[in-house]
Amino acid sequence: AQASTSTLASSAEQASDDAISAEIQSGLNAEARHINPKYFYDEYGSQLFDQITQLDEYYPTRTEITILTRFAEDIARATGRGSVLLEPGAGSCAKVRLLLEALAPACYIPIDISREFLFAAAQQLQSEFPHIPIRPVAADMQADIQLPDNLDGIPRMVFYPGSTIGNYTPAEAVEFLRHVRRTIGDNGGLLIGVDLQKDPAILNLAYNDAAGVTAAFNRNCLSNINTLTGANFDPERFRHIAFYNESEHRIEMHLESDSRQSVVIGGQSFDFKKNERILTEYSYKYTVESFAQLAAEAGLHAREHWVDEDQLFSLQYFTA
Ligand code: AVI
């Protein structure tokens, strides 16, 4: 029984390795070579992202925390209290802590793909907020969540902080917002963190920190792909490039080959010219108005928003 179990496990792993190789190959065979930013986030990549959030140059995380802390009561007044609060991609459930007392949800449902990490975070949170029912769900961000019957009829609110929405193209963002609109039904809301357009110098610094943490984060996707697929990228032979594209209102991150080189992924060889780039991430920046327009395409209506004094970051509230 032992042997067959391990054979099954390894063939399942093989299948998913193949699927990952195929996804990477297809991105590198495209006219504009690209890698999905989800490959940043293995364990080491998540640690690097955590370090990014603490850098002087990287304003979004601390600014959003300032806004949540300062306006928690006002946010609760606008959104109402006692709803079912859902958080896709909740991870460590860190930011919701700042709102739980004020929002007094009927239930908090953090949703995340990494089950163990999520359940540990939810258990810790439950011990800090024993009066709020916390029901973690291990699922993909876009999964349809079946709520327990006793929560039927209670308005739902989705909390989506961090400006993760900025890492989607506008078309993908509308698709995600439509999913949110279906999740909240006709009497629910969305509270979302959105990074704002600003002086490009501030943006360029935020994605080109002096300590090189963002560079390491960018290159780490290649190490992760090596581990997942047996590819032979040498991350040190790719330079970190990040810049604000003013006409598209987005940060673009690329990896640039420092010389001619070949990399083998899933048995296929890819040639890179010197200075050839692979796109690894977009981080779109909006105005309060341009984001409201995008949300309107998904049937979400702008109600209120909160920004910091320097207008770097926004928290925006929408209803169906
Ligand atoms: C997760 N996301 C909102 C970050 C951002 O700013 O777009 C990811 C990141 N990329 C480089 N630095 C941070």
From TrEMBL:
**GO MF term set:** methyltransferase activity
Instruction: Please provide an example of a Pfam family that matches this protein in its UniProt record.
Output: Methyltransf_33
Q: From what superkingdom does this record's organism come?
A: Bacteria
Is Methyltransferase found in the keyword set?
Answer: yes
Q: Is-annotated flag, keyword Nucleus? A: no
- Which keywords label this protein? Methyltransferase, Transferase
Any one biological process term the GO annotation gives: methylation
InterPro entries per record: EgtD, EgtD_Methyltrsf_superfamily, MeTrfase_dom, MeTrfase_EgtD-like, SAM-dependent_MTases_sf
Histidine-specific methyltransferase SAM-dependent domain span: 21-318
Q: Give the matching NCBIfam families.
A: egtD_ergothio (TIGR03438)
Name of the molecule in the record? L-histidine N(Alpha)-methyltransferase
Species name = Halioglobus japonicus
